[in-house]
Amino acid sequence: MELIYIPIIILLIGLSLFLFFRQKKQHKIFMEEIERNHSETAATIQEANESHKTEYEKLESSLYQHYHDEIKRINDNFVQKLNDKDKYIETLQEFSINRGEVETHNLLQELKYELVGEGVITYNEMIIGGNLFVPIWEDGNLYTRQIDHLVLLPTGVYVIETKHWAGTVLHGVTKNNQNDETLSTLLDNMFSSYELKKEQTVVIKKMLNKNRKVDGRSQLELRLLSYGNPAAQVMRTALELRKLLLKENKKYNFVTPIVYYSYSSDEENKVINYSENQNVNVCIEKEELAAFFKNQLAEENTLLTASDLENIYRILKAKNNIDR
Fold it and tell me: Side-chain half-sphere of 237: how many Cα atoms within 13 Å?
């Protein structure tokens, strides 16, 4: 009986060894498969990383070139506008006898760059024009009103009458809005009673009379001069411009008149504003003019788009045959 178990035991041992080595072989194959998959995965990841790196470098290079080209374009455009401005100023200086108009144009350009730099407006949201004319047809005859300076902003259209007057300027004076008896007498001798019902502007200037000498020295005289009424002038110009623009578009209904006295103030040169006219803005020196426009923009009363401003200037450009 015992001999019968011996072959069975040997068979079982053999079977166990067979299963053991077979399992070991399968385990080895499994581990080799894992190792191969790991290597392939690592290679794929490496390849993907290199591909992404290449694409990133291409994208980075493309973006850099795009922004470099855009910055160059903006810079070139800015330089061109500066050159255009300089040429305009040179032309204005060459043909204009009014130094104040040149200084005012410079001031407005500086104000524009300041406002653009501060992000208050974009470059196209402020257009500046100078020495423009508004055509007026009356009874079949053509007349013109000159605009010293035109400023177009989202808040409206502004007409500036620039006066570069030395001496003491009495703006908007009448017989009744001042209490100086001497001045009242002088006004009586300068204007008619009808004229003195309206505001007038006069200039008191100290001048040397070389034809009148005492002890060989020219004598100092005070002269009272009248150069017209700038407030009435700019108001008429603003109304005529408004009429012209309304024919083109009912939206262009906002024209603001400004009288700007540009001469620097000191002991002998100043402006005294007597005017009670609320329809015409009076600005004295550059700080006041700049503050006026900043306050207008601060109110954020947007009436016109950049496209509107360009169209308004195009209308005047066609009437004047000028270039900005």
Answer: 28
Q: Would strands 200-214 and 168-173 be described as parallel, antiparallel, or unpaired?
A: antiparallel
Tell me the pTM.
0.67
Torsion angles phi and psi, residue 59, rounded to 5: -65, -45
pLDDT of residue 118: 93
Distance CA 117, CA 205 (A): 41
* Closest listed residue to residue 273, CA positions, set 265, 156, 236: 265
pLDDT in tens, 109-121: 999 999 999 999 9
Give the containing element (helix H, strand E) for 214: strand 200-214
Closest by CA position to 115, among listed 154, 64, 145: 154
Written as six digits, the tokens of 62 are 């493309």
224 residue type, one letter: L
Which residues share a beta bridge with 134?
A: 145
Candidate from 2-16, 120-134, 181-195 with smallest mean pLDDT = 2-16
Please give the pLDDT value at position 53.
75
- What is the distance of C-alpha 119 from the center of its chain? 9
Distance, C-alpha 307 to centroid of its chain: 14
CA gap 173, 187 in Å, rounded: 9
Do the bridges between strand 281-284 and strand 255-261 make them parallel or antiparallel, or are there none, so unpaired?
Answer: parallel
Mind listing the pLDDT tens digit for each residue in 173-232? 887 877 778 788 888 888 888 888 888 899 988 877 666 666 666 667 778 888 888 999
Q: Are the beta carbons of 152 and 310 closer than 8 angstroms?
A: no
What residues contact 226, with CB distance under 8 A and at least 6 apart?
190, 191, 200, 201, 202, 203
Contact between 268 and 204 under an 8 Å Cβ cutoff? The reply is no
Q: How far apart are CA 280 and CA 227, in angstroms?
A: 18
Nearest alpha carbon to residue 152 among 324, 306, 317, 322: 306
